[in-house]
Amino acid sequence: MSKVIRIGTRDSELALWQANTVASALNGLGVKTEIIAVKSEGDLVLDKPLYEMGITGIFTKTLDVAMLQGKVDIAVHSMKDVPTALPQGIVQAAVLKRSSAIDILLHKGNLSFLEEQEATVATGSLRRKAQWLHRYPKHNLVDLRGNVNTRMQKLQDNDWNAAVFASAGLDRIGKKPANSIDLDWMIPAPAQGAMVVVALADDEFTLQTLRSLNDFEAEMTTHIERQFLRTLEGGCSAPIGAYASYNEKEDTIRLQGVLLSLDGTEKYDYDKTVSIEEWKKLGFFAAKEILDNGGADLMQRLRSQLK
Ligand SMILES: NCc1[nH]cc(CCC(=O)O)c1CC(=O)O
């Protein structure tokens, strides 16, 4: 059968790179592809912080609709932009082998501001902001929105000291500058650095084809991180980080999770290593532990603050 798989994607450089990666992999299996790029609401409205727009899935909604209308067969996303509950009729078809999940700091050649009280750091993410303020309580945080290229330009155009990015995004488009350092103390967003392909639940041919693109380790670690997020959040974009890593030699999984107040003064951490057999429920139990130890009360307050 010579069915062409139509790949829906956002039209940013990073999104197109990701879609092309999936296209190449499919072409390698002898499957023909066509890339269809669309603008998402998240890319069109740039003057509001993401959390103010209130909804999760602002980057993925347009493509969900295109798929449900039969205009594309699959969509490729940065997995951290995908809401933990997929729309009815759409399923996760493959998680690609994961690259670096780490956050990095882009600066201007001088890192002495890290030792100083006065400094301005840019990020649009509540998770990055809260973790930054927890570590550097006196620093000034400013909002930064836009795709990776836009955000790098804004850093140059303003007198901020630095801005936070996902390493994976810059690595993929080959634009990681020399002026950057790894923020190895910052817990990444759930599923950061992972790419996911979604498809229609009843599209057997496509689902079957995409199975061979799935990387089990990436599927497992992102499942754990997203389960942690889903169990904590209850539908709000709170400052939550999670990173699960597989230790092949020990056959164990380590989960690091964090929930913070917006100003970073309150912080709940989780960090445990368990046997691989426990992977399916690890995110759930980790989140429950945080909720039971004061996290539920913080989530309640966050929900009213973010309304
Ligand atoms: N929310 C934007 C977004 N979504 C995915 C990535 C980078 C790639 C990834 O994390 O997989 C980025 C950019 C960033 O956070 O700097």
UniProtKB/TrEMBL annotation:
Cellular component annotations (GO), alphabetically ordered: cytoplasm
Annotated ranges, domain Porphobilinogen deaminase C-terminal: 223-291
UniProt catalytic activity: 4 porphobilinogen + H2O = hydroxymethylbilane + 4 NH4(+)
CDD domains: PBP2_PBGD_2
Superkingdom per UniProt: Bacteria
InterPro entries in alphabetical order: HemC, Porphobilin_deaminase_cofac_BS, Porphobilin_deaminase_N, Porphobilinogen_deaminase_C, Porphobilinogen_deaminase_C_sf
Protein name: Hydroxymethylbilane synthase
Species name: Myroides guanonis
Classification of source organism: Bacteria, Pseudomonadati, Bacteroidota, Flavobacteriia, Flavobacteriales
